[in-house]
Amino acid sequence: LKRHSDTGFVVIKRGSNSSALLADVTTYSSGNGGRWSKSFAATEHYDELKADIENAVHYINTVLDKQAELMCFFVCLGTNDQALAGGGALFVAELPVFVKNLRDDFGTHTTGKKTPFIWRRPQLGTATSIVAESIAIRAGLDAYAKTDAQFVSMDVDDLERQAGDIHETPESSIAHVTTRSSSWLSFRIALSTDTLLRMATKEERIEARQTILRTGEKRAARQPMRSAGELAQEEAGATPPTDEPTDDQSEAEAAAELES
């Protein structure tokens, strides 16, 4: 936010119930179910996503008379792929193709680096998942991340699930970005994005690190997720424990921690 506060930013969010990357889990109907792969662009999700991105970029570039730059993709796919026998292999084969398609079709970077990707790794043990498919998908994401410096496979296994044991609770979900607890996921995305954008100089890294310390976000990133009861206590005025370093931390220490 500090780097882009003079011009602002836009979040383009598109979601679909029961959809998958490539596995044919649920038939596409009016925006729900179906597949996101470009192989089914005209009849399922890809062309609709394309329209959303192009409309946003057009508005920024023409109506607002600014220059849009697509900074990052955040993807939550795999939960439904792992519910179908053979879905893991389909997912792993499609993953690099899908990433390349999004970069080629929508990337605007002028720095020479690939558009960053943060991919939320599907949780283990959900009610509909098949263990072997889950393991294959998660291993595929981690393996691909090792080949692509601008790709992060983000772990969310510690986020609490609802009673149905498929979806995260509202407090854990990115869909509820206004709730207090959603910072657990949204802050992880912010940290991953910052890593991928790779600030150029040591001075910028030190400044960013000290900004994190001042705002207290470091504590949210390092502490385990608190329960709803603990959050209620905090809202009532209880002071949670903190292990934040003081603001007078030396620049050398700040730089070393940010690098790590």
Plain-language structure description:
This protein is mostly helical and about 260 residues long. About 40% of the residues lie in helices and about 5% in strands. It has eight helices and three strands; from the N terminus they run αβαβαβααααα. It has helices at about 45-65, 85-105, 130-145, 185-195, 200-215, 215-220, 230-235, 250-260; strands at about 75, 115-120, 150-155. A three-stranded parallel beta sheet has the order 1-2-3. β2, α3 and β3 form a beta-alpha-beta unit. α2 (about 85-105) runs parallel beside α3 (about 130-145) and α5 (about 200-215) crosses α8 (about 250-260). It is globular. Mean pLDDT is about 75; it is low at about 175-185, about 210-230 and about 240-250.
What are its keywords?
single chain; 3 strands; 41% helix; globular; 3-stranded parallel beta sheet; mainly alpha; 260 residues
